[in-house]
Design a protein that fits this description.
The protein is α/β, with parallel strands linked by helices. Helix content is about 40%, strand content about 15%. It is globular and about 60 Å long.
Length: about 280
Amino acid sequence: MPNVEMFELKTKEYYAVDYVLCKTKDAYDRVTKWYEDFGNPRNTTVLFVEHTSSDPSTSAKSYAQSHPEFTIRPKNFDKTTFFHANGHSAQKSTTSILQCWKERPDLPLIDIYSMHNGTRDAYDEIFKETGTPSNLRFHFGHDVDGPDFGRLLLEASTIICPSKMEGFGHYINQARAAGALVMTTNGSPMNEFIAPDAGILIDAAPFEPNQDQMLSIYGSMEWYVDATGICNAVDKVLAMTPNERTSHGKNCRRLYERQFVNFEANMRRLRALFVY
């Protein structure tokens, strides 16, 4: 079950296995085409099985049941706010989000959580002259534990996930699981998480294919999201009615549940292949 964007995956890895289990349609298309073009001496079977992610929001709800002091505010789609977390990653276009909010003091509040030193440096550089705007809260160095992270996702009405690249996209999927209106990159495989009635796609431009990513011969696997793309997508969210935003959030959760069921069924079918 490869992360097809990884530099380490080369011909010998794909020639050494009987099955390749693909988490995304983009991965399935690339791997299938590669075997067609470069041979399949082992008669390897390529399957699109999908995948799933842990659900921090459910963990937070369970924790709250046994800890009455742990309260969770309901999402507010009437007065929407925004949330973004990039952890230790440099691949989430966080700098572009910071630039967007610098350019748009009229936007609603956003909370940004980061453990990445490069993001802190970008934040310091972007706001060194103007100071942090009142509509942005930057939380740096706070390693949020499971229940607290789940609560943050549950309370956020709109979650911005503009990945540059993904092997699957767990943090996008966890945002869907929390029932948020999810914004993510309009590039593969991130855009597979969004439907017309479930989330907003952010305009993106492909980088040149990276020769260290073997399957990038079938198109770039990395995407650039700029501040303009972020701001335009935010404006689409703000142009919605509260009912529309609520509906998008519910539909994002439904997509998460549907994929969970599909993945479980696909794993049962795979197990049957090996047992019988």
